[in-house]
Design goal:
The complex is a heterotrimer.
Chain A lengths: L4 E2 L48 H16 L4 E5 L3 H6 L11 E3 L5 H14 L6 E7 H6 L2 H10 L3 E7 L40 H7 L4 E6 L3 H11 L6 E6 L3 H4 L6 H10 L6 E4 L2 E5 L8 H6 L17 H18 L6
Parallel strand pairs in A: 1-9, 2-3, 2-4, 4-5, 5-7, 6-7
Antiparallel strand pairs in A: 6-8, 8-9
Helix pairs in contact in A: 1-7, 3-5
Chain B lengths: L18 E4 H11 L4 E4 L6 H12 L7 E4 L3 H13 L5 E4 L1 H16 L5 E6 L13 H5 L6 E4 L3 H18 L3 E6 L7 E4 L4 H7 L16 E2 L8 H13 L1 H16 L7 E4 L6 E5 L3 H14 L4 E6 L1 E3 L3 H7 L5 E6 L10 H10 L7 E6 L9 H12 L6 E3 L4 H6 L13 H10 L6
Helix pairs in contact in B: 1-2, 1-6, 3-4, 6-9, 10-13, 11-12
Chain C lengths: L8 E2 L15 E5 L5 H5 L6 H8 L4 H9 L5 H7 L3 H5 L11 H15 L13 E5 L3 H12 L3 E5 L8 H4 L8 H12 L4 E3 L7 H8 L3 E4 L5 E2 L12 E3 H10 L8 E5 L3 H12 L4 E5 L11 H9 L3 E3 L2 E7 L2 E9 L5 E11 L2 E4 L3 E2 L13 E2 L2 E2 L12 E3 L11 H23 L39 H4 L12 H8 L13 H5 L5 E6 L5 E6 L8 H5 L5 E5 L6 H6 L1 H4 E3 L3
Parallel strand pairs in C: 3-4, 3-6, 4-5, 6-19, 8-15, 9-10, 9-15, 10-11
Antiparallel strand pairs in C: 2-22, 7-16, 12-13, 13-14, 17-18, 20-21, 21-23
Helix pairs in contact in C: 2-3, 3-6, 4-6, 6-16, 7-14, 11-12
The chains are: A alpha/beta, B alpha/beta, C alpha/beta.
Protein name (chain C): NAD(P)-binding protein
Pfam families (chain C): Fer4_20, Fer4_7, Pyr_redox_2
GO molecular function (chain C): iron-sulfur cluster binding; metal ion binding; oxidoreductase activity
Amino acid sequence: MTEITHRTASGVKFYQVGSLAVGNRLLPREQRAAQADPQRANTMISGHRACQGCGEVLGARYVLDAAMRATEGKLVVVNATGCLEVVSTPFPESAWRVPWLHSLFGNAPAVASGVAAALKAQGHEEIRVLGQAGDGGTVDIGMGVLSGMCERNDDVLFVCYDNEAYMNTGVQRSGATPAAARTATTPVAPGHPGNRFGQGKDVPAIAMAHRIPYVATASVADLRDLEAKVERAMQFTGARYLHVLVPCPLGWAAPSSQTIRLARLATQCGLFPLFEAEHGELVSVTPIRQQVPVDEYLRAQGRFAHLFADQAAGGRPDLVARIQAEADRNIRVYGLGGQP
Amino acid sequence: MAATELSPHRGAAPEPAGRAVEGSRAVAETVARCRPQVVPAYPISPQTHIVEALSALTRTGELESCQFVNVESEFGAMSLCIGASAAGSRTYTATSSQGLLFMSEALFNAAGLGLPIVLTVANRAVGAPINIWNDQSDSFSQRDSGWIQLYARDNQDACDLHPLAFRLAEELSVPVMVCMDGFVLTHAVERIAVPEQRIVDAFLPPYAPRQVLDPGAPLSIGAMVGPEAFTEVRFIAHGRMQQALVRFPELAQRYGKLVGRPAVELARGYRLEGARTVFVALGSVLGTLEDVVDEARADGMPVGAVELTCFRPFPAERLRTLLAGAENVVVIERAFSTGAAGIVTPELIAALAEPPAVSARSFTVIAGLGGRPITKKALRMLVHDAVAGRVARFSFLGLDRDLLARAGYGRASDDPPGSTAERLLSRLRAPESPR
Amino acid sequence: MSAHPFATTLDPGSSRANHTGAWRVERPVYAHGLPPCAAACPAGEAVRDWLYTAEDGSYETAWRRLMRDNPLPAVMGRVCYHPCETACNRGQLDQVVGINAVERFLGDEAIRRGWTVPRGAEPTGRRVLVVGSGPAGLSAAYQLALRGHAVTVREAAAKLGGMLRYGIPRYRLPREVLDAEIARIAALGVRFETQSCVDDLDAALREGGFDAAFLGVGAQAGKNAYVPAGDSAHVLDALTVLAAAEDRWPLRLGRRVAIYGGGNTAMDAARTARRLGATDAVVVYRRTRERMPAHESELEEALAEGVSVRWLSTIAHADRGLIAVERMELDESGFPQPTGRFETLEADTLVLALGQSADLGWLAGAAGVGVGDGVIDVDADLATGRPGVYAGGDAVAGPERTATGAIGQGAAAARRIDRYLSAVAGEQRDVPRQQPSAETPVPFGRLNTWYYSDAPAMLRPQLDAARRVDTFAEVVQGLTEHNALYEARRCLSCGNCFGCDNCYGVCPDNAITKLGFDADGQPRYAIDLEYCKGCGLCAAECPAAAIEMVPEPARDEPADRTEHRDAALQDVGP
């Protein structure tokens, strides 16, 4: 059994914000976040048409800039259809500054595999391939080809930017939509408090079941953790999977300024555990730093508002308790409350 | 097996050199000599022998520097092709039937992105009912996918079309489908001359992509295009595909010289001199058809045949020229559009109607669905009926009316006068048939 | 026409043609909030600023920033009751930042390394008299000297420092520290005259040719409270005890000493008595611990040194060796009321520590300078009724008489005197101080404290209490450099950017540019309003509440937008 370690900010010289903030003027350059670098890649640049406060474009820039740093700029990106694609490349303008290919909604992992195969055939294995999709393109429609990519151990880092529903088409339920969330296809009605319980798909666990070299979860609220995981992922050859939580102000019905806070609350309440697995085995978890009840996370989002209306109007403390139990389970199973 | 009824000859072509080999194997060897760099593969009958052979050729090193990837679906296979092609590699795969339909979304995408992928379709019926045998419903269903479609009359043709397909695809940035009748060709062992490596190398230069995913010169490929430019994108794609009508004959001539065989044509006439009734067909039926035409000619009937090799782009001018003297044009189709009629016929009619109009009457005969053999006998009857003016505008060749009757869809003796199809249709329009 | 396929392939980064700034309804603005520490500092120190500077080890720069407001950091780093720390927002997170300890570290570092302050301004030829060399006088003299004025400080006592020397025992403030910081002021050209009592202001001004004066005479007369005492009772004033210890007069205290009072001076007197040989030092205080005016730390240190306290007690009568103590009870309003129950306390000496007042009789004849209620009358500008004569420190009424407040008043008066002298000379030479933009200190709730590392405060090492009672060696030790740096870095930088790059990092629209640091070492960023969509993430994720979202002003004509493209880059920074 591989020993599970805890990823923390240790090793960073104490300075007000340690490694919690993006930058730190006192750290040696190589220890700074890629995002703090004035010369960062800016893989995705201004002028894209994402909504205010979009977590997905932020997550994409975080991931890709880190990947660009890790690969010294030798990166090719394959993108599934979805918000990230639509907002970034409406003719005649592209926000990307990497070689970037968009094919279809459900085939990004396979297209990425094809790019990797071509680069291998050409003897250009130093150029690394990154596939990316939203949760719809990963968890649902792209699942088969993603599994194929993992099973073949193709040399691709596939990144899922999970905003927990089909946002591009107007907030419909996906296989990643959490229980009790209101979406356009899980509307709140008497006897129907949003999305059903007990559904949804744990894709990181599915990826782990393929015993691929590296699987990790990350969030836009934990930049250094995210960047470290991208760096780590790039140290492996073969199939790698990174699942990044990216709140969506529109779909989650929250102010645009709350995107990062919501991602933070998601990890700090235990609903979204941050971990790493190598060759199918859990090797590290990022412990909860300031635990909060799920209540605090849920209340901040309009998609869960029906859980907190007064009882007469259908407020559901029982469902909040079930969600809390889910968080508690994560904390127990992943050891998120453990000491570093 | 129907293959025994097929002529291995292309009209007046000389006996091919080469060796006795299965069609699929010969195609695989030819493809290997085209030096593809990425071959994703997914099994489906009757295509499997092609990718099996390519897998072996890759493992033995006969096909060098090629990534043969066993994928999880045809959708995945075509998607890998898209990625590999966009990354600048020559890319190939093969499929059939349901597999082609499972690829469909990616087919349109590959074409829209202008990726010069070459795909062999071992033509097979599309279910339900599930049926593994040959017809051409699968590739015809992808008529509008933006791919060039070439139909092989025999296995020599199937081989020779592949170097041409790669060359054409890469020149025009349009993907090409090479269609060969499943089992009839893929599993037939015949004498086939697989083009030699030096000839293919001389004909087919290394792939020089017009754009590539290059970290040194990043591009965004696959943009979203709205109403402001979508029509123009399609207009340009149409123009590019139309160039194949010019380039295909030129390339085929060159290739034909290199291999010492007559050039493949967009569409080719057979005994058209003085032919008043001309039969138009695609694929493996041509051999038998030409034999029947020879017989009919010997009997003094003014008949001829046209082999349509290139269905997309549609060689309207070429067909007008070939059919200029015809009074009756009978199109033998191995697929049909349920609820309408033939798929090739309406396009042919439209082509002939271009001024100066060719005033031939047209007939559609649906034949060989789901692997039903198109026998010489059936074709002979068709020729006689056509010359005698007994062919309906739309009919099914060899429709088993007894079978229908046993199934409760009317008895043969009850059939009203008229063509088989019309009789059937009138029967079907009646209230629910007794079982 | 580009070489690549039309429309489906696009050039990299071409989205910059799309100016998403037009979506904005709110825009972020970099703010300079008032940190609670600075708001609370009676000396007006820009605490956040010098902590920020110290954080990267630029101690000398930090010290110089500190020295703009306070010439005695090594002294104040020891004796200040640090209201800055009381106000510090970090206290609501874990423990307050040890600002005072860092100040002391910087002050000590300056002494150790011999850092000096250059004479800034050209000599003005103006002469200013400062009466008293306590913290108010020293502060005023320093600020006036920096502005080029010729300053003479007249001190009645034998040594400089006023209450810093005679009211604060050396175990709290070693004299070499005080001397060093005064010497640095002297090095600016300030002339100090000791044993030079001013008893006639008019004469002093006239004879010295002074253009202005600052009166910082302090409050050094022990307040008399009537304590019935027998002839043989040995009663001393607390300041006398402290002064005797300072100047090493022989003083007979005896073995048992009672100290009457509950202020810091009472604590100092008790602790000094212990050091002078008393085995028992008992503080008699009429109310409870909660209501004691002495600072908690002073009491704690006294108790640790063996001082005891009799709460709810007044002294009814003192006689040779014996003191009668009456027990008190607090009434409903918290005021102590006699109970009629008496106890006896053995005490060889009774030390009265009941507060001090200013001795202002000498001002009776000074024209225009009013005195009332035991303090000099001044207006809000610290001006007396006489033009050019200002006063500050304990000699004027104030909310709390502390050395820190005295330094603030001395500096404030110096600025007014400078302005007065300029006005007289027909010049405008007062340089306005940099003022924080907000009046209300940044509240804790506006900070995004997630980003601050968990970091408990360093405790200043203390001498072993058992060992220190028989020595006047300094009780509280300074921080090591490592600890001082750590402590400085605990600062939350409330309301002010400290260059964490969060805004730069979290902007989904890459609308923020890093511009590095300005000449003062402060971080600079620019917001590109061509692309900022006004999502507010930068403001929400700013740890220090240094970004505010403000409503978007009415939009200019689109044509102006490109015209003023450079102006759209909102350059920011302190």
